[in-house]
């Protein structure tokens, strides 16, 4: 799903990224555009040099076709990154623990993919040096993931799985922080299959109500 589609689905037609009225959208066209960007990145073209015109030539479409789907290259690049990452997990909903493990496991898998792909690693590094692209990625991808984690923790606080006095944002950082350290600040650190469970179980020990 493109950024424009996701904004339209959420009922925000007036926000940046909302679809422009015009001819019907085509998934095949969108796919060819995104694949065109990936081909340019594979060829070593820096993000700063990826103009809409250049993307259009590579994808074999007109610039207007791109602008009907994305308002600018920042939104397009966010969709390219989303297409290259694993999809966000469907949470089991059986317990706070299970949902947190699923969320952290998704982070671990994205990190493994980025480590194994020189292109993705390079793109992420370049993205952080571009304030506009990073801001778009943060608003469209990172913030919804944070809100999902907050929702899981609130549910745990409300149903008694977590202590009632806990600050949601702080304890979210307690869970996510160790995985971010391993995946971002320590790129040589091991990311074994049990890491998500180990982090969640360790942190939960101090957050459960007495006798929980």
Tags for this entry?
10 helices
Secondary structure class reads: mainly alpha
- The number of distinct β-strands equals 0
Instruction: Average the pLDDT over all residues and give the rounded result.
Output: 84
What gyration radius follows from the Cα positions, in whole Å? 19 Å
Taking pLDDT < 50 over at least 5 consecutive residues as the criterion, the unreliable ranges are 1-24
Amount of helix: 55-70%
Beta percentage is under 5%
Largest sheet: none
Based on CA inertia axes, which overall geometry fits? elongated
Order of helices and strands: HHHHHHHHHH
Name the quaternary structure.
single chain
Measured between the Cα atoms of the first and last residue, the distance is 41 Å
Note the total helix count.
10
């Amino acid at each position: 799903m493109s950024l424009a589609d996701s904004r339209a689905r959420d009922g925000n037609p007036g926000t940046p990224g909302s679809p422009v009225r015009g001819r019907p959208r085509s998934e095949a066209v969108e796919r060819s555009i995104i694949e065109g960007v990936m081909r340019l990145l594979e060829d070593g073209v820096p993000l700063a040099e990826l103009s809409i015109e250049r993307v259009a030539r590579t994808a074999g479409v007109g610039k207007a076709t791109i602008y009907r789907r994305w308002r600018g290259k920042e939104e397009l690049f966010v969709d390219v990154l989303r297409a290259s990452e694993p999809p966000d997990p469907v949470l089991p909903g059986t317990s706070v623990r299970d949902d947190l493990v699923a969320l952290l496991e998704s982070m671990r898998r994205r990190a493994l993919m980025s480590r194994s792909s020189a292109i993705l690693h390079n793109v992420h590094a370049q993205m952080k040096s571009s304030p506009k692209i990073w801001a778009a990625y943060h608003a469209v991808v990172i913030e919804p993931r944070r809100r999902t984690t907050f929702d899981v923790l609130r549910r745990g606080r409300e149903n008694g799985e977590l202590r009632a006095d806990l600050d949601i944002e702080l304890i979210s950082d307690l869970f996510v922080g160790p995985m971010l350290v391993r995946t971002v600040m320590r790129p040589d650190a091991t990311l074994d299959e049990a890491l998500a469970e180990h982090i969640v179980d360790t942190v939960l020990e101090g957050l459960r109500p007495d006798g929980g």
